[in-house]
Please model this.
Amino acid sequence: MRLLLDESVPRPLRTSFPAAYEVRTVPEMGWAGTGNGALLALAVDNGFDALLTVDRGFAHQQNQDDLPLPVVIMLAASNRPADLRPLVPKAIDVLSGALQRRVYHVPAASP
Model:
């Protein structure tokens, strides 16, 4: 699976995914500062299977009936790697399923 990490996701998180995932970051692809709609189009054009973000507003900024690929939003207390790493197994569970072109939310565990 080719997975694109949005600018809001810290780069070190890429190492939290198993080797079966080809994980790239938006800055690494040279797409930093690209708007969400254009970013989704670039991701599809470059063969990505899904976009991972922590941008909670992403779902409200896009027409969810017309998404070109699945978007996974990790809902952590912050975008620090320490807060996001515990959510990676849940994100992998989502990404391992039968993905549709829609927004998926991966919430943090309840206290």
